Amino acid sequence: MDWGLRNRLSRIIKPTDGRTVMLAVDHGYFLGPIRRLEQPGETVAPLVPYADALMLTRGVLRNCIDAATAVPVVLRVSGGSSIVGGDLANETITTSMREAVRLNVSAVALSVFVGSDYEHQTLANLARLVDEGEACGVPVLAVTAVGKELEKRDARYLGLCCRIAAELGAHFVKTYYCEDFEHVTESCPVPVVIAGGPKLDTDLDALQLAHAALQQGAVGVDMGRNVWQSDHPVPMIRALRAVVHEGAAPEEAHELLVELKHATETQPV
Ligand code: 5RP
C-alpha cells in the first residue's frame, strides 16, 4: 500500500489501538431528512469531538460541516436511487475522485449489492473506484449493503460480500453484525467495521452489538442511527468510545452513559 493511502487510512483507524469509531450521517443520500438528521449540521456538531471520522456526502460536507474541522472525512460517493424510487441497489458513482481529493477527504465509500440485479454494476463501480483511489492515495470503504432483503443478513452472505469487496481491492469494509460474525472477519483480509442498523430498543443493546463485533474481529463501528437517534447522543458516542477504544464491557460503558447523562441534566444553566 502506498504511503499516502496508508497515511489517510491511519487517520481513520487509529494506529494507537487499530480501532475506530466512525459516525455515519450519510443516510439522506437515499432516505432524505430522516428523524434527527433533518438538520445534519446541528446533529453532528456536538458529536464531532468524539468521532474518529465522519461518513457523509459532499452536499452535507460542504453545507453543514465547518471547513476548519480536523475530523477525517469518509466521503460517500455512490448513490442515484431513493427510498421512493426504483431499486435501491441501482447505484452509480456520484462524486469523482478528483472532487474527493479537492475536498481533502481521508477515504471514499460506496455500496455494493451482492446478489441483487445490480451486483455486476456495483462491483464494477468498486473496482473502478479502487483503481482511481490507488492512483490518488485515497482508500476505499466498501459498504456491503443489503437493500430491503433483510433475510440475507447471515454470516454466509455477509462473509461472501466482504470477501468479494476485499478481493476487488477495497481497503476496508463495512458490514452488519450477525451470528457467527467471526466467520465474516476471519475470511476478510482487510479491516471490517460494522453499521448499527435501525435504532435498537435501548442504548445498551447498541453497546452490546459493538462489543460483540469487536470480540469477533471487527476493528470498530461506523454507526449512525443508534448514536444520533439515541435520546442522549453525546453520552452514547462517548460510551461507544469506551467500548471500542478502552475495552469497556457494554454494561460498564452504559454506566458511563448514565453518569454523563445525569451530569448534563444537573449542569447549571
Ligand atoms: C447506508 C450506510 C449508513 O451509513 C449505514 O447504514 C450506517 O448507519 P447505521 O448505523 O444507521 O446503520 O452506509 O448504506
What do these coordinates show?
This protein has twelve helices and ten strands. The chain has a single domain (3-265), classed as Aldolase class I (TIM Barrel, Alpha-Beta Barrel), CATH 3.20.20.70. Helices cover 43% and strands 14% of the residues. The mean pLDDT is 96. Helix 9 packs antiparallel against helix 12 (250-265) and helix 11 (233-246) runs antiparallel to helix 12. The strands form two sheets. An eight-stranded parallel beta barrel has the order 1-2-3-6-7-8-9-10, surrounded by six helices. Strands 4-5 form a two-stranded antiparallel sheet. Helix 8 links the parallel strand 8 (172-175) and strand 9 (192-194). The protein starts with a helix and ends with a helix. With 269 residues, it is of the alpha/beta class. The chain has helices at 3-12, 28-31, 40-44, 58-64, 97-102, 119-136, 155-167, 181-186, 203-215, 225-228, 233-246, 250-265; strands at residues 20-24, 53-56, 73-76, 78-79, 92-93, 107-112, 140-144, 172-175, 192-194, 220-223. Residues 24, 26-27, 55, 111, 143, 145, 195-197, 222-226 line the site of ribulose-5-phosphate.
Please summarize what this structure is.
By secondary structure, the chain is an alpha/beta fold.
- Low-confidence stretches are none
Largest sheet: 8 strands, parallel, barrel
CATH architecture: Alpha-Beta Barrel
Number of helices: 12
Structural class per helix/strand content?
A: alpha/beta
